[in-house]
User: Fold this.
Amino acid sequence: MKQIHLIGFVILSLLVAACEDSIPFRYEGKEPDSMSTRQYPHAFFIVHGQIIDSLTQGPIPGLPVNLRLEDTVFTDTTGFFRVQTIAFPISQEFRLVFNTRGEHHNPLYNPETLYVHFMLPTFKLSQEEILEHGPQFFGSAFMTINKTLSPLVDE
Assistant:
């Protein structure tokens, strides 16, 4: 009878352990969250490029660009932008929105959404980055997206 109780206890313990949340991205709050203390592999995924007007062929300054619904960046005076996100270092797909709706929306252009694919990315990594971001940091993967937007025309 004691063996049945022991076997039941072992099975129940295994089931409880198997049901425990083991998502590697979950932050338990025991340590401060910084790039150097992350306990799972991570990398920067960076998209940069230029946005130009289809009619004037000139750059569009101050246009909001958003990658993965993170902080919005704006194109500079020459239409260039650079957005980045942190993710697990494998093939990834992210949503990139040009001229996001909101406070800084440019009414001359419709918002446009692209899905950018980092397929089997190659990461650039230096010794200084390992020291700064921790041993689980894989480096940075880059992609260039140049976009031409058509202005809305009043009829």
Residues 35-149 form a domain with the Immunoglobulin-like fold (CATH 2.60.40.1120). Confidence is low (pLDDT under 50) at residues 18-27.
